[in-house]
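Exercise 7. Given the encoded structure of a 282-residue chain, write a plausible sequence.
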């Protein structure tokens, strides 16, 4: 969560954010963020989408068509917004996020959540090892220079009593986790969900560094499935940098995030694997 260096209160001097703009509202993560924001009943949600996009938008939101080659359309769409959430795929042109950040600054948007996924981007050695990391740092620095998402954006801007507030997260990362698990924990979950025993499986072992290097080699050759392989493997290096519950501490409780069921999501992952969705990640 990064704030612009101005008065942090939204327009109208309310202590809560009301108007939230999002890029990628129909995407893999964006659609769930929109659903959660609307479920609070506290936010007006606006989706920014390209003129050429035919993606179906979630109901209950305002849609603004924008043209990234015309910055004025971005500034216009971001007028009177209290926060901007950016969710874009790894293949999105990097200049798109730069343009959004400049437009948000010009429109007076006070809070920006830049594109985030997969690992602790405040950990410089980790970022150095995963290709998008260095570019993400550029975005954070640009935001500062210029000035559980629903739970986070529903916090008061300034402290009210003893609870958390948005200013706690100004210009720093917010750390949440659905689960903190080892690879053995994941295997045990698979056995429970499939009602099988270890003897029913063929288990092979591969060093995390070798698997990481395999993923990065794919990335360098233009195969973006290698990002998932490399990023996942890098988070299990012995240096512990992938476990931000230990290195940073989690903000789950501050945001009121409930504990999730690992086996429930293991079942989802197994269904995806059986349907071929994850074939390229091996």
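Solution.
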């Amino acid at each position: 969560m990064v704030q612009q260096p101005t008065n942090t209160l939204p327009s109208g001097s309310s202590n809560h954010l009301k108007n939230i703009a999002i890029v990628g509202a129909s995407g893999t993560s964006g659609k769930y963020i929109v659903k959660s924001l609307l479920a609070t009943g506290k936010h007006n949600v606006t989706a920014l989408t390209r003129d050429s996009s035919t993606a179906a938008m979630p109901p209950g939101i305002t849609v603004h068509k924008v043209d990234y080659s015309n910055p004025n359309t971005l500034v216009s769409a971001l007028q009177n917004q209290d926060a901007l959430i950016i969710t874009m795929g790894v293949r999105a042109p990097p200049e798109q996020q730069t343009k959004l950040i400049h437009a948000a600054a010009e429109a007076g948007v006070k809070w920006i959540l830049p594109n985030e996924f997969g690992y602790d981007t405040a950990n410089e050695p980790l970022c150095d090892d995963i290709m998008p990391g260095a570019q993400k740092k550029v975005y954070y620095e640009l935001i500062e220079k210029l000035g559980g998402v629903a739970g986070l954006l529903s916090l008061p801007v300034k402290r009210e009593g003893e609870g958390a507030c948005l200013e706690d997260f100004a210009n720093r990362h917010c750390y949440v986790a659905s689960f903190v698990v080892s690879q053995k924990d994941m295997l045990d979950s698979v056995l429970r969900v499939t009602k099988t025993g270890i003897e029913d499986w063929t288990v092979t072992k591969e060093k995390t560094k070798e698997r990481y290097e395999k993923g990065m080699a794919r990335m360098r050759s233009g195969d973006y499935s290698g990002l998932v392989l490399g990023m996942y493997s890098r988070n299990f290096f012995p240096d512990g940098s992938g476990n931000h519950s230990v290195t940073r501490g989690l903000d789950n409780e501050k945001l009121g995030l409930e504990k999730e069921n690992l086996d429930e999501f293991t079942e989802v992952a197994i269904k995806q694997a059986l349907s071929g969705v994850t074939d390229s990640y091996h």
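Remark. The beta strands are 2-3, 19-23, 44-50, 62-66, 83-86, 111-113. Students should compare their own answers with the one above.
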